[in-house]
Amino acid sequence: ETLPRVAARLAADPAGRELLRARAAIDSKHVDFAALRALPPTTLGGAYVRALDSKGLDPDIFQRPPGLPEEFAYVAQRARQTHDLLHVLTGLDTDIPGEIALQAFTHAQLRQNFSKLIVRFGLAIFGLRYPHTWSMVRRATKAGEDAKFLLAVRWEDWWSVPLTEVRARVGLPLLGVCAA
Questions:
Q1: Quick check: 151 and 16 in contact, CB under 8 A?
Q2: Which pLDDT tens digit goes with each residue over 99-116?
Q3: Which residue(s) pair with 162 in the sheet?
Q4: How far does Cα 133 stand from its chain's mean position?
Q5: Helices 132-146, 96-110: crossing angle, 10 deg rounding
Q6: Nearest to 26 by CA among 9, 51, 1, 5
Q7: pTM, whole model, 2 decimals?
Q8: Are 111 and 2 in contact (CB under 8 A)?
Q9: How big, in percent rounded to 5, are the helix, strand and coil portions of the chain?
């Protein structure tokens, strides 16, 4: 139920329609990661590639899931491929509290039941161990509700833009300080 709704929301947005048409992907087949490494670390692309490198993350891990209609498979792939980019944009780390908070942000943006479950179980399991996670989740939820619909953004066109400007363009506050 989530993929058809998100695909419809993308199709209703001019930039989202273009993404659906072009099938832009954020992986080594479509993005020149060496060029991103040459960008300053204060740019979207420079910060993103440094985050991937510092965390040992592989941009090729998230490909289209099999067995879905083409459009829904693309929407799922795009959502997965932008996950690590959202860490950079929000400043939320890849530790347990940061992942839970990013799922709260994602749920506010996409209304995915899976994200909601991760937040609920994450808070139930880790809320006492990491009490600051509760406030992080509240702030991330509010930011996700207030920000532009980020799945419709073609980030590939903004690699050289300073992160502060990118955040301003999409109405996104810095929620944490990612160790990227």
A1: yes
A2: 999 999 999 999 988 999
A3: 43
A4: 19
A5: 30
A6: 51
A7: 0.90
A8: yes
A9: 65, 0, 35
